[in-house]
Amino acid sequence: MGERPVRPRGAAARAAGLASLALAAACSDEPGTPAPGASAPPAAPAAATEHGRFLWHEHGSGVDFVHRSCGSGKKLLVEINAAGVSLLDYDGDGDLDLFCCQGAALPGFDATGVDLRDRLYRNDGAWHFTDVTDATGAFDDGYTYSAACPDVDGDGDPDLHLANAGRNRWLRNDVKQSGRFVDATDAWGGDAPEWSTAAACVDFDSDGDLDLYVANYVELALDHPGCGRLQQGEAWRIYCHPDEFRPAPDRLYRNDDGRFVDASDRLGDAGKGGAGLGLVPSDYDGDGDVDLFVANDSNPRFLWRNEGGFAFTEAAGEAWVAVDGSGVSTAAMGCDFGDVDGDLDFDLVVANLAMELNNLHRNDGHGRFDDRSTASGFGPPGLLYVGFGCELFDLDLDGDQDALIANGHIMDNVEKYEPAQTFRQPPLCLVNDGRGRFTRLAPEAAGAYFASRQVARGLAVGDLDDDGDLDAVVGHWNGTPALLENRTIVAGSPAPRWLGLKLEGKGKNRQALGARVTVEAGGRTQIDEVRGTSSYAAFHDLRLFFGLGDATGAERVTIRWPDGRTSTHGPLAAGRLHVVAEP
Amino acid sequence: MSPARAPRSAGSELVVRPIGVIRSPFKVHLDAPRQGRLAPSSEGTIELERGLQNLLQDVAGFSHLWVLFWCNYSRGWNAQVVPPRDTRKRGLFATRSPDRPNPIGLTVVELLSVRGTKLRVRGLDMLDGTPVLDLKPYVRYADSIPDASDGWLATLPPEPRPDHRDWTKQPKKAARRAGALLIAAASLLPLGLVGGCGPEQGGARSGRAPAITTPQDDASLLAGDGVLDAEIAAPRKGDESAATAWFQQAVASRGKWRTRDAVRCFERALDVDPAHLGALVEYGFLLLEPGAEQNLGLALLQFRRAQAVVPGQLHALAGEGVARAALHDVARAEPLLRRALDELPEEAVGRRAWSALALADLCAADGRTDEALQLYAQVTADAIPALQRSTALVHVADLLLQLDRPANAEPALRAALVLDPQHVRAHYLLAQLLAKRGDAAAEAAKETRIHELLRQLLDHVSPLYTKDAARRTQLWHELAAAWPENRRLPYSLARDQLDAGDYAGGKATAAELLARDGATAEVSWLAARAAAGGGDLATAKQHLDAMRRADPNAPSTVVRAVLEDWRRGNPDSVDAALFDRTLREWVNGQ
Predict the structure, then answer these.
(1) Contact by Cβ (8 Å): B527, B510
(2) Which residues of A466-493 are buried (b: 16+ CB within 10 A; e: fewer)?
């Protein structure tokens, strides 16, 4: 996505400029209404080690991937937004491996001697990884923005969908048989030719197999004359704003007996003109089927309400999430759903451009959202930053949804245009007080990475060391990904109680994508969903982790499976990962 | 060794210690009168240092005092200068310019009262914060010499000439001269040297203005969070008189004509004199305003530079507080804003409104609801300028909605829309409010539609990128259809068309406006631009003349704007030489 270094918003800038701070005061005076049955959140556990909450494995992990934007000085828009990261257990050994998305040579780029492959790293444990790209063939030659890891063929291992600027690709996981990933693009279809940025696999029609939604950005123009105050010289050249280009329509595919058939006409005209960058599936309205939110760049967002029968209504407007609370179509990148206020519905967070607050839209439980970006404290810390990866998860295992936001500007010469901005920006670690109010964790407490400045893009979350707390990987533009070990649970130290769930679905949806989980523990109820795709340019751990506070386990776990059936389990003991198969 | 016994030599220095400070309503030198006697009603205070009260015994019986002060804002001096009402250079010691080898100022003030170490006085011409060196009683037998001669002052014509520093008081006669800037005309430099943005004054003849250097070239800005934390060095002093000419044009352009021209003139002023306090402050506040030119970081930079020039300059301090608040630098913003509200004079209505609004926003975000509401109430009073008022109304409406008081929020939103009919957020909030009310479905739908179209229009505005002009025109038409009672929409459409180079479209829209609203200044200006862009200079000139008849105070930048449209619309037939020649002819009224 491009940048407007000044704010050409006219009357709307009256809202966005000075008004961005002026939202609810009342919510900070009174606690959010707790959900029935919920008790006050437990006290947060003590902060982790001298390293802070997250230990940055900056060296020695074996992850030597360097993302390449492959620019030649023309500042083509396609160069500036990529660096996706994905977590998947490609070899089925129970731990999460890492896939890093790579760029591809653009006109004028000298690729001589440059390794432009995507890379797959096997997790060997203890924060060491081995490059298995050559062995597995897990790469393609496209300009890859993100990789989704659904088990499309239902054989028990994750495949790869590469969202490229250009033809997308399917790589079928055949590692158990041949040791390699096999190109299945022609066989499976769904190879949208547009500039794709993200994809989500969801069983939209509850027929047991995974369908596909692809967010597309804008037309891929490699001969644009360029933007910026060029009359002052090349040093003022900037990446163009996406408004310079025609948006590319998103694509919807229905899985028809193993082949993805284009069903984009189901989106109608509403699906055009988005310029999608991030997306997240969720049953936001609690009606039993999975809906989908798309974060669009400088255009109104999409909220595809699933009406059943593979029919969709674009409901962002009526749900009040099409624009932010100022009425502005933000430059939205990363997004996620999570129950931030404990009222048992999924609230929405969106990471936006600098000088646009990151948004927190609170779900009112009736299919509508209220902008609580300022009142919740979620928005203001990110005002100066360009937020990409944005993920809600319980990082301190205290039973509520916290957030990480990966930041980095999209203008490497932004200081020329806006003295308050920098190209490299610090990430944000936001901690929830249990009532939906967020506070930025100081770098000293969050960890050294949060005192650094990066050009961050993708952000994926998962338990990479299988200790029960959720770690993170952040993709860096033209850099090496950051591996962040969550130190909430440290061997030999008192740790909060947690519960892990790995769901195994029946049929082709072996990963149980779209399943909704309700955990009741110690008088507190929490909800979550199996999604995979959310944040920006990322695929996450599909296991679910819940902080239990003082409870020694979950009294009851209710699972609504993708096909709509429900099962109840428990009690389940804390401190371990439970594998739950669909009955 | 006492000063009386200090050896006298050409290189000796003497130490002078201030005995107090002036507290004055004049914060910027352009605010201050040329001489105190020219502002007999201006009141202020002389605050002496502690312990000096005994030196004031028997002072109260005098009606007037001499005040010797140090012109601490002086930055260098020239041997010869052009005095404010004059048109030629005079030797420095034949003037009272504050920029002198020893910038000692001398003023006689009327003494109103003495209390402790504070003297209330009237007839000031000093700036706030000026150090005081000495006080002496004014005694008629020694100080009044009625038959003294006035030197070159006696050669000035009886009709007062405009003070070339005072842009607020330009006589209409001077302003009517085509392109003549509102300052003394006789020493106009060839306009080609200054690009039609005003002649230079004073002794400096710098020729073509140097290439604009970006303030962002300051390497210190690249540290940390840029301008938020970096040390800002005091800018170098330049040619203040020349910069003042640009500054005056900037202020005039800012009034209503072309914000972009104002920005350009401010930039030129600061290029010529980076330490020009007025330009730094006013440019900063312009950059705070919502719109295509808003740039909060750049605004903050101006305010910080202004305070490097004059530490504690209140307007700059207020601006810094507003900018930091908008940039969410809450910890540093709040004390600045509170100080601004405490110390800015009441007459600084706009600046106080900015400060109160920003502080209200901070309080609202921090949960200090009561204080926020009180501050918002201050900014919504009738005397507040429309920009701040409309913004405050929308903000307080939003707060009231969050407090679940829609009945109070709705009138605030509607009042905001009276002041600013195209306020996107107000339409958005009103649409939400009406939709929730249930009994206003039709109006809610209309508000939603208006918001939708305004939002789309705003999404297609940028000074750096090409705009989809056809789409914008379509959107304006759709908006006009959805919102027939908003009579400003055709003006917005016309500006859009002209800015996009659609001169045929602009001409048609201007013609509609002429038929509907008559030859007002704004309509005539739009018609002039359209005609010029279409290559019809004669018609453009007619419209320009009509514009000046309607508004004699229109700045000369409008002439340039029209000719720029001429050049843009006719690139093959209008070269630089022809452009410059035509500009000079039009500015000189030929």
Answers:
(1) yes
(2) bbbbbbbbbbbbbbbbbbbbbbbbbeee
- Tens digit of pLDDT for each residue in A375-419? 899 999 999 999 999 999 999 999 999 999 999 999 999 888 888
H helix or E strand, kind and range, residue A182: strand A180-183
Mean pLDDT for A445-452 is 94
Q: How is chain B split among helix, strand and coil, in percent rounded to 5?
A: 55, 10, 40
Q: Determine the residue of chain A that is closest to B467 in CA distance.
A: A244
- Whether residue B366 lies within 8 A of chain A, CB to CB, comes out as yes
Query: Six-digit token pair at B206?
Result: 């710098």
Tell whether B288 lies on the interface with A, counting CB pairs under 8 A. Answer: yes
With 0-12 / 13-18 / 19 or more C-beta atoms within 10 angstroms meaning exposed / middle / buried, residue B391 is buried
**Cα→Cα distances A184→A152, A161, A162, A167, Å:** 11, 10, 11, 13
What token pair was written down for A249? 């329509």
DSSP 3-state percent helix, strand, coil across chain A (nearest 5): 10, 35, 55
What confidence tens digit (pLDDT) does each residue in B22-63 have? 988 776 555 567 677 767 778 899 999 888 888 898 998 999
- Rounded CA separation B580/A245 (Å): 37
First and final C-alpha spacing in chain B: 68
Write b or e for each residue in B460-476: b if 16 or more Cβ atoms lie within 10 A of its Cβ, otherwise e. Answer: bbbebbebbbeebbebb
CB atoms within 10 A of CB B190: 9
User: pLDDT, tens digit, for every residue of B235-276?
Assistant: 888 888 888 888 888 887 776 556 777 888 899 999 999 999
B386-402 vs B424-437: helix crossing angle, rounded to 10: 30
Question: Does the pTM of the predicted model rise above 0.90?
Answer: no
The residues, ordered by sequence, that sit 6+ positions from B153 with a Cβ below 8 Å of its Cβ are none
Cβ-based contacts of A18 with chain B (< 8 Å): 288, 290, 322, 325-326, 357-358, 361, 391, 395
Strand partners, A99: A86, A120
For residue A421, the chain B residues in CB contact (below 8 A) are: 226, 297
Q: The tokens of A244 are what?
A: 């310079």
Residue A222's nearest CA partner among A51, A367, A303, A107 is: A107
DSSP 8-state code for residue B108 = E
**B31 interfaces chain A, CB cutoff of 8 Å:** no
**Contact with chain A for residue B438, Cβ under 8 A:** no
Q: Which of A406-410, B71-75, B170-174, B327-331 has the lowest mean pLDDT?
A: B170-174
